[in-house]
Amino acid sequence: MSGPSILQERTALRLAAAALIAGTTSLAAQTVAVPVGTLLPVPPAVSSPFTLSAINDASTGQGAFLYAGQEVPPIIRVNPGSKIRLVYRNRMSAHSTETCVDGPCTNMSNLHFHGLHVSPNRPQDDVISMMSMPGESLRYTVDVPENQPSGLYWYHTHPHGESYQQALDGMSGAIVVEGIDRYVPEIRSLKEQILILRDVQLTPGDARSETLVEASDVSKEKCGEATGPLERLFTINGVLRPRIGIAAGEKQFWRIVNASPDLYADLTIDGGSMTVVAFDGMPLGYHHPNHPTRQLQHVLLPPAGRVEAIVVGPESPGKASLRSLCVDTGPDGDPNPEFVVADLDETSAAPRTQVSANIRAGHSKPVAVQLSAAMTKQLEGSEPAFTVDFTEDQHGFYINGKKYSPTDGPMTTVSIGDYVHWRVRNDTHEVHPFHIHQVHFLTYSEDGRLIENPEWLDTVNLKPQQTLDLIMDFTDPIIRGMSVFHCHLLKHEDKGMMAKILFQ
Ligand SMILES: [Cu+2]
Predict the structure, then answer these.
(1) Is the pLDDT of residue 462 over 60?
(2) DSSP secondary-structure letter at 39?
(3) Which residue has the higher pLDDT, 309 or 8?
Protein backbone atom coordinates (compact mmCIF):
# COMPACT_ATOMS: atom_id res chain seq x y z
CA MET A 1 0.00 0.00 0.00
CA SER A 2 1.36 3.46 -0.84
CA GLY A 3 1.50 6.28 1.70
CA PRO A 4 -1.32 8.76 2.13
CA SER A 5 -1.92 11.05 -0.83
CA ILE A 6 -1.54 14.81 -0.59
CA LEU A 7 -5.31 15.01 -0.78
CA GLN A 8 -5.66 12.70 2.20
CA GLU A 9 -3.10 14.64 4.20
CA ARG A 10 -4.80 17.92 3.42
CA THR A 11 -8.15 16.51 4.43
CA ALA A 12 -6.72 15.11 7.66
CA LEU A 13 -5.08 18.43 8.52
CA ARG A 14 -8.17 20.43 7.77
CA LEU A 15 -10.36 18.09 9.78
CA ALA A 16 -7.93 18.12 12.70
CA ALA A 17 -7.96 21.92 12.69
CA ALA A 18 -11.73 21.96 12.46
CA ALA A 19 -12.04 19.53 15.35
CA LEU A 20 -9.73 21.63 17.46
CA ILE A 21 -11.60 24.84 16.77
CA ALA A 22 -15.03 23.25 17.04
CA GLY A 23 -14.10 21.73 20.38
CA THR A 24 -12.41 24.67 22.03
CA THR A 25 -13.87 27.92 20.76
CA SER A 26 -16.27 29.32 23.30
CA LEU A 27 -18.95 31.49 21.79
CA ALA A 28 -22.27 32.75 22.94
CA ALA A 29 -23.75 31.51 19.66
CA GLN A 30 -25.80 28.32 19.68
CA THR A 31 -23.52 26.21 17.49
CA VAL A 32 -22.55 23.34 19.76
CA ALA A 33 -19.32 21.37 19.76
CA VAL A 34 -19.48 18.26 17.61
CA PRO A 35 -16.77 15.67 16.92
CA VAL A 36 -15.29 16.02 13.44
CA GLY A 37 -13.58 13.43 11.25
CA THR A 38 -13.44 10.55 13.73
CA LEU A 39 -14.17 6.92 12.86
CA LEU A 40 -17.93 6.29 12.55
CA PRO A 41 -19.15 5.30 16.03
CA VAL A 42 -21.40 2.25 16.42
CA PRO A 43 -24.43 3.08 18.60
CA PRO A 44 -25.36 0.51 21.26
CA ALA A 45 -27.98 -2.06 20.32
CA VAL A 46 -30.85 -2.83 22.67
CA SER A 47 -33.48 -5.52 22.83
CA SER A 48 -36.58 -5.28 25.01
CA PRO A 49 -37.32 -4.45 27.74
CA PHE A 50 -35.42 -1.24 28.37
CA THR A 51 -35.71 2.30 29.69
CA LEU A 52 -35.17 5.40 27.60
CA SER A 53 -35.10 8.85 29.18
CA ALA A 54 -35.72 12.24 27.63
CA ILE A 55 -33.44 14.82 29.24
CA ASN A 56 -31.95 18.24 28.62
CA ASP A 57 -28.20 18.14 28.07
CA ALA A 58 -26.51 19.76 31.07
CA SER A 59 -24.23 22.00 29.01
CA THR A 60 -26.36 22.95 26.00
CA GLY A 61 -29.90 22.69 27.37
CA GLN A 62 -30.87 20.81 24.21
CA GLY A 63 -33.20 17.84 24.33
CA ALA A 64 -31.50 14.43 24.28
CA PHE A 65 -32.16 10.73 24.78
CA LEU A 66 -30.36 9.09 27.69
CA TYR A 67 -29.82 5.33 27.57
CA ALA A 68 -27.59 3.29 29.92
CA GLY A 69 -25.98 6.46 31.26
CA GLN A 70 -25.00 7.81 27.83
CA GLU A 71 -26.58 10.44 25.61
CA VAL A 72 -26.49 7.98 22.70
CA PRO A 73 -29.88 6.74 21.47
CA PRO A 74 -29.74 2.95 21.14
CA ILE A 75 -30.61 0.94 18.04
CA ILE A 76 -33.72 -1.10 18.84
CA ARG A 77 -33.39 -4.60 17.33
CA VAL A 78 -36.54 -6.69 17.14
CA ASN A 79 -37.60 -9.86 15.38
CA PRO A 80 -40.88 -9.97 13.44
CA GLY A 81 -43.55 -11.44 15.71
CA SER A 82 -42.05 -10.06 18.93
CA LYS A 83 -42.52 -6.98 21.10
CA ILE A 84 -40.73 -3.71 21.71
CA ARG A 85 -41.17 -3.00 25.42
CA LEU A 86 -39.85 0.18 26.93
CA VAL A 87 -40.44 2.73 29.63
CA TYR A 88 -40.08 6.27 28.32
CA ARG A 89 -39.22 8.61 31.18
CA ASN A 90 -39.65 12.31 30.53
CA ARG A 91 -36.94 13.89 32.67
CA MET A 92 -36.77 17.09 30.66
CA SER A 93 -36.90 20.45 32.38
CA ALA A 94 -40.31 21.97 33.06
CA HIS A 95 -38.69 25.32 32.21
CA SER A 96 -37.24 24.97 28.73
CA THR A 97 -34.59 27.31 27.37
CA GLU A 98 -35.71 26.38 23.84
CA THR A 99 -38.41 27.98 21.72
CA CYS A 100 -41.15 26.00 19.99
CA VAL A 101 -43.79 27.28 17.54
CA ASP A 102 -46.12 28.64 20.22
CA GLY A 103 -43.44 30.13 22.50
CA PRO A 104 -41.20 28.42 25.07
CA CYS A 105 -41.25 24.63 24.65
CA THR A 106 -43.26 22.85 27.36
CA ASN A 107 -41.08 19.74 26.89
CA MET A 108 -44.04 17.41 26.54
CA SER A 109 -42.86 14.28 24.76
CA ASN A 110 -43.81 10.83 23.47
CA LEU A 111 -42.61 8.30 20.88
CA HIS A 112 -43.57 7.37 17.34
CA PHE A 113 -42.36 4.08 15.81
CA HIS A 114 -42.01 5.32 12.24
CA GLY A 115 -43.03 2.80 9.58
CA LEU A 116 -44.06 -0.10 11.82
CA HIS A 117 -47.37 -1.75 10.88
CA VAL A 118 -48.62 -1.71 14.46
CA SER A 119 -51.68 -0.53 16.35
CA PRO A 120 -52.15 3.26 16.60
CA ASN A 121 -53.70 2.76 20.04
CA ARG A 122 -52.22 2.91 23.54
CA PRO A 123 -49.76 1.38 24.55
CA GLN A 124 -48.42 1.10 21.01
CA ASP A 125 -47.83 3.69 18.26
CA ASP A 126 -50.22 6.28 19.70
CA VAL A 127 -49.04 9.88 19.26
CA ILE A 128 -52.48 11.39 19.93
CA SER A 129 -53.47 10.32 23.45
CA MET A 130 -50.08 9.22 24.79
CA MET A 131 -48.15 12.28 25.98
CA SER A 132 -45.86 12.84 28.95
CA MET A 133 -45.08 16.13 30.66
CA PRO A 134 -41.72 16.54 32.45
CA GLY A 135 -41.68 14.17 35.43
CA GLU A 136 -44.08 11.66 33.82
CA SER A 137 -43.43 8.31 32.14
CA LEU A 138 -45.02 6.34 29.31
CA ARG A 139 -44.97 2.56 29.00
CA TYR A 140 -44.87 1.19 25.46
CA THR A 141 -45.54 -2.41 24.42
CA VAL A 142 -45.43 -2.52 20.64
CA ASP A 143 -46.43 -5.79 18.94
CA VAL A 144 -44.33 -6.05 15.80
CA PRO A 145 -46.33 -8.36 13.54
CA GLU A 146 -45.01 -11.55 12.00
CA ASN A 147 -45.43 -10.06 8.51
CA GLN A 148 -43.73 -6.71 9.27
CA PRO A 149 -41.35 -6.09 6.36
CA SER A 150 -37.78 -6.72 7.58
CA GLY A 151 -35.74 -3.56 7.40
CA LEU A 152 -34.72 -0.22 8.87
CA TYR A 153 -37.28 1.82 10.77
CA TRP A 154 -36.82 4.55 13.36
CA TYR A 155 -38.28 6.10 16.48
CA HIS A 156 -38.61 9.77 17.26
CA THR A 157 -40.69 12.03 19.45
CA HIS A 158 -44.01 13.34 18.13
CA PRO A 159 -45.47 16.08 20.36
CA HIS A 160 -47.48 18.36 18.06
CA GLY A 161 -45.99 21.86 18.27
CA GLU A 162 -42.64 20.64 19.65
CA SER A 163 -41.69 17.83 17.23
CA TYR A 164 -39.34 20.00 15.19
CA GLN A 165 -37.16 21.14 18.09
CA GLN A 166 -36.91 17.68 19.64
CA ALA A 167 -35.99 16.02 16.33
CA LEU A 168 -33.49 18.78 15.57
CA ASP A 169 -31.91 18.17 18.98
CA GLY A 170 -31.46 14.51 18.01
CA MET A 171 -34.25 12.78 19.93
CA SER A 172 -34.41 9.87 17.50
CA GLY A 173 -32.94 6.43 16.94
CA ALA A 174 -32.92 3.48 14.55
CA ILE A 175 -35.09 0.36 14.72
CA VAL A 176 -33.98 -2.78 12.89
CA VAL A 177 -36.62 -5.41 12.17
CA GLU A 178 -34.46 -8.48 11.65
CA GLY A 179 -34.56 -10.86 8.71
CA ILE A 180 -33.83 -8.73 5.64
CA ASP A 181 -31.25 -11.37 4.66
CA ARG A 182 -34.22 -13.56 3.68
CA TYR A 183 -34.60 -11.39 0.58
CA VAL A 184 -30.90 -11.10 -0.27
CA PRO A 185 -28.97 -13.96 1.43
CA GLU A 186 -25.65 -12.40 0.40
CA ILE A 187 -26.17 -9.84 3.19
CA ARG A 188 -25.44 -12.52 5.81
CA SER A 189 -21.73 -12.41 5.06
CA LEU A 190 -21.42 -8.61 4.92
CA LYS A 191 -20.45 -6.10 7.55
CA GLU A 192 -23.44 -4.01 8.57
CA GLN A 193 -23.10 -0.23 8.99
CA ILE A 194 -26.02 1.75 10.42
CA LEU A 195 -25.84 5.44 9.50
CA ILE A 196 -28.17 7.82 11.36
CA LEU A 197 -28.20 11.26 9.76
CA ARG A 198 -28.96 14.03 12.23
CA ASP A 199 -28.20 17.75 12.33
CA VAL A 200 -25.60 20.09 13.63
CA GLN A 201 -27.22 23.52 13.82
CA LEU A 202 -25.35 26.44 12.34
CA THR A 203 -25.49 30.06 13.42
CA PRO A 204 -24.91 32.38 10.46
CA GLY A 205 -21.81 34.52 10.94
CA ASP A 206 -20.52 32.47 13.86
CA ALA A 207 -16.87 31.34 13.51
CA ARG A 208 -17.49 27.82 14.77
CA SER A 209 -20.28 27.35 12.22
CA GLU A 210 -18.00 28.56 9.45
CA THR A 211 -15.40 26.00 10.50
CA LEU A 212 -18.00 23.23 10.26
CA VAL A 213 -19.13 24.47 6.84
CA GLU A 214 -15.48 24.43 5.76
CA ALA A 215 -14.91 20.95 7.21
CA SER A 216 -17.92 19.60 5.28
CA ASP A 217 -16.68 21.05 1.98
CA VAL A 218 -20.03 22.75 1.41
CA SER A 219 -20.28 23.57 -2.29
CA LYS A 220 -20.43 27.24 -3.22
CA GLU A 221 -22.20 26.41 -6.49
CA LYS A 222 -25.70 27.81 -6.77
CA CYS A 223 -28.15 25.13 -5.66
CA GLY A 224 -31.79 25.51 -6.64
CA GLU A 225 -33.95 28.52 -5.93
CA ALA A 226 -33.90 28.59 -2.13
CA THR A 227 -32.39 31.68 -0.54
CA GLY A 228 -31.20 32.53 2.96
CA PRO A 229 -28.41 31.20 5.15
CA LEU A 230 -27.53 27.51 5.53
CA GLU A 231 -28.90 26.50 8.92
CA ARG A 232 -27.58 22.96 9.37
CA LEU A 233 -25.38 20.13 8.18
CA PHE A 234 -25.63 16.39 8.61
CA THR A 235 -23.78 14.46 11.24
CA ILE A 236 -23.68 10.65 11.09
CA ASN A 237 -24.06 8.86 14.42
CA GLY A 238 -23.19 12.19 16.06
CA VAL A 239 -19.99 12.93 14.10
CA LEU A 240 -19.52 15.57 11.43
CA ARG A 241 -17.87 14.01 8.36
CA PRO A 242 -16.85 10.71 10.01
CA ARG A 243 -14.57 8.14 8.40
CA ILE A 244 -16.25 4.90 7.37
CA GLY A 245 -13.89 1.93 7.20
CA ILE A 246 -14.17 -0.04 3.97
CA ALA A 247 -11.53 -1.77 1.84
CA ALA A 248 -11.26 -1.45 -1.94
CA GLY A 249 -13.67 -3.99 -3.40
CA GLU A 250 -15.16 -4.88 -0.01
CA LYS A 251 -18.94 -5.26 0.05
CA GLN A 252 -20.80 -3.87 3.05
CA PHE A 253 -24.48 -3.53 3.94
CA TRP A 254 -25.34 0.11 4.71
CA ARG A 255 -28.61 1.01 6.42
CA ILE A 256 -29.22 4.76 6.33
CA VAL A 257 -31.97 6.86 7.95
CA ASN A 258 -32.44 10.59 7.48
CA ALA A 259 -33.50 11.63 11.01
CA SER A 260 -33.28 15.38 10.31
CA PRO A 261 -36.49 17.39 10.73
CA ASP A 262 -35.93 19.29 7.49
CA LEU A 263 -32.64 18.64 5.69
CA TYR A 264 -32.79 16.49 2.54
CA ALA A 265 -30.09 13.98 1.62
CA ASP A 266 -29.35 12.99 -1.96
CA LEU A 267 -26.64 10.46 -1.26
CA THR A 268 -23.94 9.29 -3.63
CA ILE A 269 -20.56 7.60 -3.21
CA ASP A 270 -17.65 8.92 -5.28
CA GLY A 271 -16.86 6.36 -7.97
CA GLY A 272 -19.37 3.87 -6.59
CA SER A 273 -22.98 2.84 -6.74
CA MET A 274 -25.52 1.42 -4.33
CA THR A 275 -27.33 -1.87 -4.81
CA VAL A 276 -30.57 -0.98 -3.08
CA VAL A 277 -32.29 -3.75 -1.09
CA ALA A 278 -34.98 -1.69 0.68
CA PHE A 279 -36.59 1.74 0.83
CA ASP A 280 -38.34 2.90 4.02
CA GLY A 281 -37.86 -0.53 5.62
CA MET A 282 -39.66 -2.29 2.76
CA PRO A 283 -37.44 -4.83 0.97
CA LEU A 284 -37.89 -4.58 -2.80
CA GLY A 285 -38.28 -8.37 -2.69
CA TYR A 286 -41.38 -8.07 -0.48
CA HIS A 287 -43.48 -7.14 -3.49
CA HIS A 288 -41.14 -8.29 -6.27
CA PRO A 289 -39.49 -11.58 -5.24
CA ASN A 290 -37.77 -11.82 -8.63
CA HIS A 291 -36.27 -8.32 -8.43
CA PRO A 292 -34.97 -7.94 -4.87
CA THR A 293 -32.31 -5.32 -5.69
CA ARG A 294 -31.85 -2.23 -7.83
CA GLN A 295 -28.63 -0.43 -8.77
CA LEU A 296 -28.64 3.35 -8.21
CA GLN A 297 -25.99 6.06 -8.51
CA HIS A 298 -27.69 8.30 -5.95
CA VAL A 299 -30.66 8.07 -3.60
CA LEU A 300 -32.88 10.94 -2.45
CA LEU A 301 -33.80 10.61 1.21
CA PRO A 302 -36.31 13.21 2.37
CA PRO A 303 -36.52 13.73 6.14
CA ALA A 304 -37.66 10.35 7.60
CA GLY A 305 -36.61 8.39 4.48
CA ARG A 306 -34.45 5.27 4.68
CA VAL A 307 -32.38 3.29 2.23
CA GLU A 308 -30.62 -0.04 2.73
CA ALA A 309 -28.03 -0.96 0.15
CA ILE A 310 -25.03 -3.12 -0.61
CA VAL A 311 -22.06 -0.83 -1.11
CA VAL A 312 -18.74 -1.80 -2.69
CA GLY A 313 -15.58 -0.05 -1.52
CA PRO A 314 -14.22 1.98 -4.47
CA GLU A 315 -10.78 1.49 -6.04
CA SER A 316 -9.10 4.00 -3.71
CA PRO A 317 -11.34 4.33 -0.65
CA GLY A 318 -9.08 7.01 0.86
CA LYS A 319 -9.98 9.37 -1.99
CA ALA A 320 -13.72 8.71 -1.95
CA SER A 321 -16.48 10.39 0.01
CA LEU A 322 -20.16 9.91 0.73
CA ARG A 323 -21.81 13.12 -0.44
CA SER A 324 -25.20 14.69 -0.29
CA LEU A 325 -25.89 16.36 -3.64
CA CYS A 326 -27.69 19.67 -4.14
CA VAL A 327 -31.45 19.38 -3.57
CA ASP A 328 -33.63 22.11 -5.08
CA THR A 329 -36.20 22.70 -2.34
CA GLY A 330 -38.04 25.41 -4.30
CA PRO A 331 -38.11 29.23 -4.03
CA ASP A 332 -39.80 29.07 -0.60
CA GLY A 333 -37.60 26.18 0.62
CA ASP A 334 -34.44 26.08 2.73
CA PRO A 335 -30.93 25.91 1.24
CA ASN A 336 -29.81 22.30 0.74
CA PRO A 337 -26.42 22.48 -1.03
CA GLU A 338 -23.99 19.70 -1.89
CA PHE A 339 -21.54 18.74 0.86
CA VAL A 340 -19.45 15.83 2.09
CA VAL A 341 -21.22 13.69 4.69
CA ALA A 342 -18.45 11.12 5.32
CA ASP A 343 -15.12 9.92 3.99
CA LEU A 344 -14.34 6.32 3.16
CA ASP A 345 -11.18 5.02 4.77
CA GLU A 346 -9.35 1.84 3.88
CA THR A 347 -6.95 2.02 6.83
CA SER A 348 -9.75 1.43 9.32
CA ALA A 349 -11.55 -1.14 7.20
CA ALA A 350 -12.96 -4.28 8.74
CA PRO A 351 -11.56 -7.65 7.58
CA ARG A 352 -13.21 -8.64 4.33
CA THR A 353 -14.44 -11.99 5.52
CA GLN A 354 -16.10 -10.79 8.70
CA VAL A 355 -19.60 -12.17 9.08
CA SER A 356 -21.87 -9.71 10.80
CA ALA A 357 -23.01 -10.91 14.18
CA ASN A 358 -25.76 -8.32 14.13
CA ILE A 359 -28.08 -9.80 11.56
CA ARG A 360 -29.68 -12.69 13.33
CA ALA A 361 -31.42 -15.18 11.12
CA GLY A 362 -35.09 -14.23 11.07
CA HIS A 363 -37.40 -16.76 9.60
CA SER A 364 -36.30 -18.95 6.78
CA LYS A 365 -38.96 -17.95 4.25
CA PRO A 366 -39.40 -14.42 2.97
CA VAL A 367 -42.79 -12.82 3.53
CA ALA A 368 -44.09 -11.56 0.21
CA VAL A 369 -47.25 -9.80 -0.88
CA GLN A 370 -48.07 -9.15 -4.49
CA LEU A 371 -50.72 -6.69 -5.51
CA SER A 372 -52.24 -8.26 -8.64
CA ALA A 373 -51.74 -6.51 -11.97
CA ALA A 374 -55.52 -6.41 -12.43
CA MET A 375 -56.05 -4.74 -9.05
CA THR A 376 -53.25 -2.25 -9.74
CA LYS A 377 -54.77 -1.35 -13.13
CA GLN A 378 -58.21 -0.93 -11.63
CA LEU A 379 -56.94 1.39 -8.87
CA GLU A 380 -54.83 3.39 -11.30
CA GLY A 381 -57.85 3.93 -13.52
CA SER A 382 -60.10 5.03 -10.66
CA GLU A 383 -60.77 8.52 -9.34
CA PRO A 384 -58.94 9.15 -6.05
CA ALA A 385 -60.98 8.23 -2.97
CA PHE A 386 -59.26 11.06 -1.06
CA THR A 387 -57.03 14.00 -1.93
CA VAL A 388 -54.45 15.59 0.36
CA ASP A 389 -53.78 19.20 -0.60
CA PHE A 390 -50.71 20.88 0.96
CA THR A 391 -50.92 24.69 1.17
CA GLU A 392 -49.20 27.38 3.22
CA ASP A 393 -49.34 31.11 3.91
CA GLN A 394 -47.73 33.51 6.37
CA HIS A 395 -50.02 32.24 9.15
CA GLY A 396 -49.32 28.55 8.87
CA PHE A 397 -49.39 25.28 6.98
CA TYR A 398 -52.53 23.42 5.95
CA ILE A 399 -53.96 20.15 4.68
CA ASN A 400 -57.12 20.72 2.64
CA GLY A 401 -57.26 24.28 3.98
CA LYS A 402 -57.26 23.11 7.60
CA LYS A 403 -54.63 23.64 10.30
CA TYR A 404 -54.28 20.65 12.65
CA SER A 405 -55.63 20.86 16.16
CA PRO A 406 -55.24 18.04 18.72
CA THR A 407 -58.99 18.24 19.40
CA ASP A 408 -59.92 17.61 15.74
CA GLY A 409 -62.01 14.67 14.66
CA PRO A 410 -60.81 12.59 11.70
CA MET A 411 -60.45 14.40 8.38
CA THR A 412 -61.12 11.08 6.69
CA THR A 413 -62.39 7.64 7.70
CA VAL A 414 -61.33 4.49 5.86
CA SER A 415 -62.64 0.97 6.06
CA ILE A 416 -60.01 -1.60 6.86
CA GLY A 417 -59.46 -4.24 4.23
CA ASP A 418 -58.91 -2.27 1.04
CA TYR A 419 -56.21 -0.90 -1.18
CA VAL A 420 -57.27 2.70 -1.84
CA HIS A 421 -56.28 5.34 -4.39
CA TRP A 422 -55.14 8.62 -2.79
CA ARG A 423 -53.84 11.73 -4.48
CA VAL A 424 -51.40 14.15 -2.80
CA ARG A 425 -50.99 17.64 -4.22
CA ASN A 426 -48.38 20.24 -3.34
CA ASP A 427 -49.87 23.70 -3.98
CA THR A 428 -46.83 25.55 -2.61
CA HIS A 429 -43.43 26.73 -3.82
CA GLU A 430 -41.35 24.43 -1.66
CA VAL A 431 -40.92 20.68 -1.11
CA HIS A 432 -43.00 18.69 1.40
CA PRO A 433 -42.52 15.00 2.30
CA PHE A 434 -45.88 13.22 2.80
CA HIS A 435 -45.98 10.59 5.57
CA ILE A 436 -48.76 8.44 7.00
CA HIS A 437 -48.34 6.49 10.21
CA GLN A 438 -48.41 2.64 10.18
CA VAL A 439 -48.92 2.35 6.41
CA HIS A 440 -46.78 1.83 3.32
CA PHE A 441 -48.10 3.06 -0.02
CA LEU A 442 -47.15 2.63 -3.66
CA THR A 443 -46.31 5.90 -5.42
CA TYR A 444 -47.26 5.01 -8.99
CA SER A 445 -47.87 8.28 -10.79
CA GLU A 446 -46.24 11.70 -10.92
CA ASP A 447 -48.16 14.63 -12.42
CA GLY A 448 -50.41 12.17 -14.23
CA ARG A 449 -47.58 10.07 -15.71
CA LEU A 450 -46.96 6.49 -14.58
CA ILE A 451 -43.64 6.04 -12.76
CA GLU A 452 -41.34 3.45 -14.35
CA ASN A 453 -40.13 1.79 -11.13
CA PRO A 454 -42.84 2.55 -8.57
CA GLU A 455 -41.77 2.12 -4.94
CA TRP A 456 -43.53 1.20 -1.71
CA LEU A 457 -42.69 3.93 0.80
CA ASP A 458 -43.93 5.40 4.06
CA THR A 459 -42.59 8.89 3.27
CA VAL A 460 -42.51 10.43 -0.20
CA ASN A 461 -41.23 13.79 -1.35
CA LEU A 462 -43.43 16.21 -3.28
CA LYS A 463 -41.71 18.84 -5.38
CA PRO A 464 -43.28 22.31 -5.59
CA GLN A 465 -46.60 22.16 -7.45
CA GLN A 466 -46.31 18.39 -7.89
CA THR A 467 -49.15 15.85 -7.76
CA LEU A 468 -48.55 12.21 -6.82
CA ASP A 469 -50.99 9.30 -7.01
CA LEU A 470 -50.66 6.59 -4.40
CA ILE A 471 -52.11 3.18 -3.67
CA MET A 472 -52.60 3.06 0.10
CA ASP A 473 -52.41 -0.34 1.79
CA PHE A 474 -55.31 -0.18 4.26
CA THR A 475 -55.70 -3.97 4.35
CA ASP A 476 -54.10 -4.64 7.73
CA PRO A 477 -56.69 -5.51 10.44
CA ILE A 478 -54.16 -4.57 13.16
CA ILE A 479 -54.25 -0.93 12.10
CA ARG A 480 -57.55 0.10 13.64
CA GLY A 481 -58.32 3.37 15.39
CA MET A 482 -57.29 7.03 15.13
CA SER A 483 -54.00 7.96 13.54
CA VAL A 484 -52.38 10.78 11.54
CA PHE A 485 -50.78 11.75 8.25
CA HIS A 486 -48.62 14.83 7.84
CA CYS A 487 -45.75 16.68 6.21
CA HIS A 488 -42.43 15.37 7.57
CA LEU A 489 -40.77 18.77 7.52
CA LEU A 490 -41.49 18.92 11.21
CA LYS A 491 -41.74 22.69 11.48
CA HIS A 492 -44.60 22.44 8.97
CA GLU A 493 -46.22 19.64 10.99
CA ASP A 494 -45.88 21.74 14.17
CA LYS A 495 -47.52 24.65 12.36
CA GLY A 496 -50.53 22.66 11.26
CA MET A 497 -49.71 20.45 8.24
CA MET A 498 -51.16 17.29 9.80
CA ALA A 499 -54.59 15.63 9.94
CA LYS A 500 -56.27 12.66 11.60
CA ILE A 501 -57.42 9.49 9.89
CA LEU A 502 -59.76 6.92 11.42
CA PHE A 503 -59.28 3.28 10.46
CA GLN A 504 -62.43 1.26 11.15
CU1 LIG B 1 -44.10 20.53 4.61
Answers:
(1) yes
(2) B
(3) 309
